[in-house]
Amino acid sequence: MQADLSPVIAATAQWLTCAYPASGGALASALCEVQARQAVTVAALLRYPTPMDAALMGMAGPGGSARLDWITGSDGTPAADTDGHAWRTWVDEVVASWAACLLTDPELAAPAVAALTADGPTEATTPEFRRLLAPDERDRRAAALLRHPDLLAPVAELHRAQLLDRLGRGPALVA
């Protein structure tokens, strides 16, 4: 993973777990966070596939969470506590949308992970993203809100078409 993507991955995963929290205690929170981080990592690597892409994003900035906060109805950054919420400036809307697509549509997750390597998923790649690709019952219960298609639909639909195009699954063009 390119080191330049670490702040975007961390902030976007944190945004997802704040907007769609786990229920059921510390273990559920950890399982939910792992699933969010795996989906965001795949989405970020698809969105910024080269070091140059990551560097340009680092210079321009990822955009922040303001629109996502508005769409999900969260109150966003309280005016009195801007330092405590500075991480929100590192949230990438497209990466969050793509991660939401991967979390709610299992048929997109496998091709997305496969797209990370030229020859498809390697033995090292598949276990690294196991909780995204093949969540067990405990994972599903922990991330019930994070994987709920209806709840994530407003975020997922923002940039779903771009993800489908990136994966080569966009609508066929008719001549």
Can you offer a commentary on this structure?
- By secondary structure, the chain is mainly alpha-helical.
- It has helices at residues 6-19, 26-47, 51-60, 66-72, 93-104, 106-114, 125-128, 130-133, 137-142, 149-166.
- Helix 1 (6-19) packs across helix 2 and helix 5 (93-104) crosses helix 10.
- The termini are far apart.
- The relative contact order is 0.19.
Summarize the structure.
By secondary structure, the protein is an all-alpha fold.
pLDDT < 50 stretches: none
Radius of gyration: 16 Å
* DSSP helix fraction: 55-70%
Tell me the strand percentage band.
under 5%
Helical segment count: 10
User: Got a strand count?
Assistant: 0
Instruction: Report the biggest beta sheet as strand number plus sense, adding barrel if it closes.
Output: none
Compute the average pLDDT: 88
Produce the secondary structure layout.
Elements: H1 6-19, H2 26-47, H3 51-60, H4 66-72, H5 93-104, H6 106-114, H7 125-128, H8 130-133, H9 137-142, H10 149-166
Helix pairs in contact: 1-2, 1-5, 2-5, 5-6, 5-10
